[in-house]
């Protein structure tokens, strides 16, 4: 029998594809770039700070295991960039994506002279080119190289930032972290270039000193003219070879397109009467983009989401087998139906008919994912259901306007309590409401917020009862159900009628706990899981095992006669912790 840990590792391995390898290698290279830029920024302090920084920088990155990982990442990332140029059949995505590819492919041409001059010069001839020697070459001997180096700094940084943006934009924390990440993305390269400028000024001043020139510009550190010519020849050869490789890739793309057309065309039918003819080899998503057919794809065809999913109609046996990455994504969304495929990964070899599972007008291939939760995400949330008691009898004895006024005042008091506690009012269902906690905080904090919201609801409803005392025959009463668990959050609806909400068993259980407050004659029923996660003691609230419709096993819950007591329990827990 396979152990859970082994199954987890196997599941992770299935999710690793070329894009994940590109992400990992790119992250390693970006870490080097950050280290190098911070080192450059020390030039704003002094040349001594630059020298100290480069010592620790090289000690780490030239440590043999680290160096092997780093240079392997460089080679693999460059190779994957060239492969992406060949593999990608459609560039009609967002403009930022071909820009990222173009910037990445230009980096080797811009950086090769620096790498050969410093690293290869050290390996072949023992050159000791550090900041004094490099700044001398940039600012005095060959100023044109300075502009090339500044260009590669900007190009590499922008390329890396675009890649991180595509990766992080689907993360829940991205919206909160975006301002800080943007500040770092601007400040780090700015300080690095200012550090190079200040170091260059110091170097030009030191150059006037004959002793400095004799020590820093020696043959041992800079090498001889013949050695320089050899390194320049190697640089030219590598540059020409790289350009030739790119040329071969472009020729291969043209040859592939010709062969695909000769190999026959296939027909894709969208299930709504729209059909397109495309060469074999295109993915369904690429075919949609080529023929301007709207197709949902939040991640831009990177197999990081499932919004481009399609259901193939008819015989799906002849379809190509899903790649490990596609199988991983489909497994993550719980789709074991072989007729459901990712449009960005499926490259049909014959005619197919299908329909899209996500409407393209809500999520297009060019849509931004500035709010990742809205495109569908699984996460832990605490659901709080609150319902007004006796609203039916209230409506029977009052004018419609008066009834609506009272219900709105009730929902307003509840919403105010939820917001004050840190939650989010989500759905208003008649005289009831669903509130969500945990969209921006962890589990424990979400549970504590939900309990505090229940206590605040009691306070606000008491104040409302006093305000309406002359109009009500009896005070407004309420019932609350609270439960936490993994749910799916996202926008649900049609066209302009989309609402953000949560779906899952945890939400349904919270609603049923709210219903139980009637039979259990209490103001709130809380799952024991929420009580424990919030840090309340076992004896804080009375326990009871109840049967939940849809569940085989009884569930332990905690009943709360008066929800005001929850504030006291939470404050006592905080005092003990302090």
Q: Would you write up a description of this structure?
A:
57% of the residues lie in helices and 15% in strands. The chain has 578 residues and is α+β, with helices and mostly antiparallel strands. It has three domains: 17-256, no CATH class; 265-356, Roll (Ubiquitin-like (UB roll)), CATH 3.10.20.30; 376-577, 2-Layer Sandwich (Alpha-Beta Plaits). The strands form two sheets. Strands 6, 7, 8, 9, 10, 11, 12 and 13 form an eight-stranded mixed β-sheet that branches. A hairpin with an 8-residue loop joins strand 12 and strand 13 (555-560). Helix 1 (4-14) packs across helix 13, helix 4 runs antiparallel to helix 5 (96-125) and helix 5 runs antiparallel to helix 11 (225-262). It is flat and about 100 Å long. The protein starts with a helix and ends with a helix.
């Amino acid at each position: 029998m396979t152990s859970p840990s082994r199954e987890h590792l196997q599941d992770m391995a299935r999710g690793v594809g070329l894009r994940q390898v590109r992400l990992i290698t790119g992250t390693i290279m970006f870490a080097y770039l950050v280290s190098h830029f911070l080192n450059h920024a020390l030039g704003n302090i002094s040349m001594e700070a630059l020298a100290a920084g480069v010592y620790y920088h090289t000690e780490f990155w030239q440590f043999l295991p680290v160096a092997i990982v780093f240079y392997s990442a460089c080679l693999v990332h460059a190779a994957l960039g060239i492969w992406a140029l060949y593999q990608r059949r459609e560039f009609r995505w967002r403009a930022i994506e071909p820009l990222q590819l173009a910037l990445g492919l230009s980096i080797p041409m811009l950086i090769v002279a620096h790498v050969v001059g410093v690293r290869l010069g050290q390996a072949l001839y023992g050159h000791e080119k550090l900041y004094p020697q490099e700044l001398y070459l940039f600012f005095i001997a060959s100023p044109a190289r300075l502009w090339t180096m500044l260009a590669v700094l900007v190009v590499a940084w922008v390329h890396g930032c675009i890649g991180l943006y595509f990766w992080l934009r689907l993360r829940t924390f991205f919206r909160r972290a975006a301002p800080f990440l943007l500040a770092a993305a601007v400040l780090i390269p700015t300080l690095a270039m200012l550090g190079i400028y200040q170091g260059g000024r110091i170097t030009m001043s030191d150059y006037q000193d004959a002793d400095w020139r004799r020590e820093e510009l020696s043959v041992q550190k800079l090498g001889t003219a013949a050695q320089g010519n050899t390194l320049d020849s190697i640089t030219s050869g590598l540059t020409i070879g790289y350009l030739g490789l790119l040329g071969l890739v472009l020729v291969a793309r043209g040859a592939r397109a010709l062969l695909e057309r000769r190999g026959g065309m296939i027909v894709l039918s969208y299930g709504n009467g729209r059909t397109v003819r495309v060469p074999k080899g295109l993915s369904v998503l690429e075919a949609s983009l080529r023929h301007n057919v709207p197709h949902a794809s939040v991640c831009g065809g990177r197999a990081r989401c499932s919004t481009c999913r399609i259901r193939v109609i008819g015989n799906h046996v002849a379809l190509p087998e899903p790649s490990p990455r596609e199988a991983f994504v489909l497994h993550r969304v719980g789709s074991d139906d072989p007729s459901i495929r990712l449009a960005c990964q499926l490259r049909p070899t014959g005619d197919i008919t299908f329909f899209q599972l996500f409407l393209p007008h809500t999520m297009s291939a060019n849509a931004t994912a500035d709010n990742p939760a809205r495109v569908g995400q699984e996460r832990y949330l605490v659901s709080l259901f609150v319902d007004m008691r006796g609203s039916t009898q209230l409506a029977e004895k009052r004018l419609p306007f008066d009834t609506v006024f009272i219900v709105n005042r009730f929902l307003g008091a509840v919403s105010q309590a939820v917001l004050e506690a840190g939650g989010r009012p989500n759905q208003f269902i008649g005289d009831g409401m669903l509130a969500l906690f945990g969209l921006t905080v962890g589990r424990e904090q979400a549970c504590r917020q939900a309990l505090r919201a229940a206590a605040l609801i009691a306070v606000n409803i008491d104040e409302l009862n006093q305000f309406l005392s002359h109009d009500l025959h009896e005070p407004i009463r309420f019932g609350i159900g609270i439960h936490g668990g993994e749910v799916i959050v996202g926008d649900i609806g049609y066209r302009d009628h989309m609402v953000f909400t949560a779906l899952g068993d945890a939400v349904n259980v919270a609603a049923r706990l709210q219903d139980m407050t009637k039979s259990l004659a209490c103001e709130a029923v809380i799952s024991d899981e929420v009580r424990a996660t919030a840090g309340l003691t076992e004896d804080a609230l009375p326990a009871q095992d109840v049967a939940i419709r849809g569940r085989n096993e009884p569930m332990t819950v905690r009943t709360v006669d008066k929800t005001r007591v929850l504030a006291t329990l939470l404050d006592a827990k905080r005092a003990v912790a302090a």
